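Fold it.
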Amino acid sequence: MDIDIGIEQGVRREIADGLSRVLADSYTLYLKTHNYHWNVTGPMFQTLHLLFETQYTELALAVDLVAERIRALGFPAPGSYSDFARLTVIKERAGVPSAREMIADLVAGQEAVTRTARGLFPVVDAAHDEPTADLLTQRMQVHEKNAWMLRSLLEG
């Protein structure tokens, strides 16, 4: 059945492609944050272990919302490691970095998701796609706050 939500199919595809990049960045950041939760050590272990858990738990819920929006627009959501690796701008990190390096790496990841989401706004705004704009705004707010909280740990 055709989708008739007031956004032309080609534009819906462009938005879904952008959301697929947001999804890939978010899932990659989820995996990295979960990895760091498992492997963090040092004097800030308890604080970071709990902070990372809070952040990866939030990301686990967020990826579902992004994938469901892609589906609502009429396109399949990417869902494999190879899809995510192709679509994400977040790079993997080999080995187990220090706690400080983990924090800095996660700041960069949070900011990367924000940039990817922000980059989709011109097409979303032009299409008057308020549901996607709302989702992106919420995601950016969370990622900017997370980046700030992580960055604060590096000061001093």
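Helices lie at 9-39, 45-72, 81-87, 99-119, 121-126, 130-153.
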